[in-house]
């Protein structure tokens, strides 16, 4: 035992290994696919670079992380420049990154997108059946030791303690996960025919890297979800994680807790709503009672005893009877007055009386006519004589009777000047009695002769 060399401490071994790596390998470029990208509040970035055969942990400290332009998402293919080292407290072999460059889409992400496009074209993502709310018997497919089932049960207990839940334990990571979940889905759908109360399935797990969640991107699992007779809700990973199971299921929740919140109502909200409805119902009942009470009081006030009603109706009938008698008496008296008036008018219009009055008017008119005729004839004779005297006074014939004559030419026009005649012209002289045919021999002046009394001379 005394010849045993001194043993090194664990920290010393890790320190020597770190120095050997840093001095022996130095700085290098490594290309691979990003996985498990973590961004703690310190500002450092921790991730894993991998290919189809191996993986390498990496750390990118805050002073360098701010200069990285690449988005640093799981599945991206990048090239990282750095130096190999060991994190002594845990003995973790890692690459201390200095720079990161994008190198294209990762193989896993490319395979995911290709499979997603093919399944979408086949209609595998067309499920949209509504899930019962709340389900009578919820079947949960998940790991019995994971955080997902604890979160789901905690939310269900807080929101809806009446929920009936059955855990179907299945692996949720690794190669056995997808076949186990497919087998469980088939068994649950066959048992649903025997137990109709089983009416919803929740398939869930907590967060993880793209590789950890890859079982939920299995093509056969997506088809099993599509063909499930029971409606399925998928809640895989965190809010940023999306798997093919989410697309194939009837509904998706971002986290297991959110899935439980969507599946069942909140008993506190229901209790509050029930209390509100109870208050509204009580107020409505009280208001209805008050209205009906007022209506009853009004009807009671309107209600009368039959004897009182009959007495009032008898009084009304007597009043109407008296009004009828008065109306009949007034009507009869009016008719009698009208009859007497018509009789008086009829006697005044009797034919014998009218004939006597007409004969008397005719006699008076005849007497006035006989008396007026002589007077009218005498007056007309006097007026005619006066008009004859006036006519005789202005008549041209009276002038001709005093020796004057009127000369007319062949056309019957009166000749007024000697210049209007010509020698040899025949004229007619109209005398007071008769006519003379004259011939013009010679024209001469006659201005010194006296003018006749009549314009026709």
TrEMBL record:
It holds the Pfam family tRNA_anti_2. It comes from the Bacteria. GO terms for molecular function: exodeoxyribonuclease VII activity. Keywords: Cytoplasm, Exonuclease, Hydrolase, Nuclease. The keyword Nuclease applies. It catalyses: Exonucleolytic cleavage in either 5'- to 3'- or 3'- to 5'-direction to yield nucleoside 5'-phosphates. It is found in: Cytoplasm. Residues 127-438 form the Exonuclease VII large subunit C-terminal domain. Its EC number is 3.1.11.6. Residues 8-100 form the OB-fold nucleic acid binding domain. Bidirectionally degrades single-stranded DNA into large acid-insoluble oligonucleotides, which are then degraded further into small acid-soluble oligonucleotides. Belongs to the XseA family. Heterooligomer composed of large and small subunits. This is Exodeoxyribonuclease 7 large subunit. The gene is xseA.
């Amino acid at each position: 035992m005394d010849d045993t060399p001194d043993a090194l401490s664990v920290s010393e071994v890790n320190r020597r290994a770190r120095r050997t790596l840093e001095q022996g390998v130095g700085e290098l470029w490594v290309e691979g696919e990003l996985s498990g990208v973590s961004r703690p509040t310190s500002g450092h970035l921790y991730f894993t670079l991998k290919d189809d055969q191996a993986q390498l942990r990496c750390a990118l400290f805050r002073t360098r992380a701010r200069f990285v332009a690449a988005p640093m998402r799981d599945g991206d293919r990048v090239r990282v420049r750095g130096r190999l080292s060991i994190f002594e407290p845990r003995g973790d072999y890692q690459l201390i990154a200095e720079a990161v460059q994008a190198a294209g889409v990762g193989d896993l992400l490319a395979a995911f997108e290709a499979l997603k496009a093919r399944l979408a074209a086949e209609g595998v993502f067309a499920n949209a059946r509504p899930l019962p709310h709340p389900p009578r018997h919820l079947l949960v497919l998940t790991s019995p030791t994971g955080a997902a089932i604890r979160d789901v049960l905690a939310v269900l207990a807080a929101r809806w303690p009446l929920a009936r839940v059955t855990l179907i334990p299945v692996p949720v990571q690794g190669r056995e996960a997808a076949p186990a979940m497919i087998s469980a889905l088939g068994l649950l759908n066959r048992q649903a025919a025997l137990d109709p109360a089983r009416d919803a399935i929740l398939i869930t797990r907590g967060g993880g890297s793209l590789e950890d969640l890859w079982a939920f991107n299995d093509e056969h699992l997506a088809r099993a979800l599509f063909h499930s007779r029971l409606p399925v809700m998928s809640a895989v990973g965190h809010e940023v994680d999306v798997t093919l199971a989410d697309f194939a299921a009837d509904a998706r929740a971002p986290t297991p807790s959110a899935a439980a919140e969507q599946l069942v109502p909140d008993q506190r909200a229901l209790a509050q709503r029930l209390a509100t409805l109870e208050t509204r119902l009580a107020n409505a009942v009280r208001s209805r009672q008050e209205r009906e009470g007022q209506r009853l009081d009004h009807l009671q006030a309107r209600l009368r005893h039959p004897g009182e009603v009959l007495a009032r109706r008898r009084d009304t009938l007597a009043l109407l009877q008296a009004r009828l008698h008065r109306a009949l008496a007034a009507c009869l008296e009016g008719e009698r007055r009208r009859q007497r008036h018509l009789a008086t008018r009829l006697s005044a219009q009797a034919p014998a009386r009218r004939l006597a009055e007409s004969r008397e008017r005719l006699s008076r008119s005849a007497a006035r006519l006989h008396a007026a005729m002589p007077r009218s004839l005498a007056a007309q004779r006097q007026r005619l004589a006066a008009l004859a005297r006036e006519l005789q006074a202005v008549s041209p014939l009276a002038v001709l009777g005093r020796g004057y004559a009127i000369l007319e030419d062949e056309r019957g026009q009166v000749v007024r000047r000697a210049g209007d005649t010509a020698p040899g012209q025949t004229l007619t002289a109209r005398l007071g009695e008769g006519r003379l045919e004259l011939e013009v021999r010679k024209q001469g002046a006659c201005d010194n002769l006296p003018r006749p009394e009549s314009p026709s001379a």
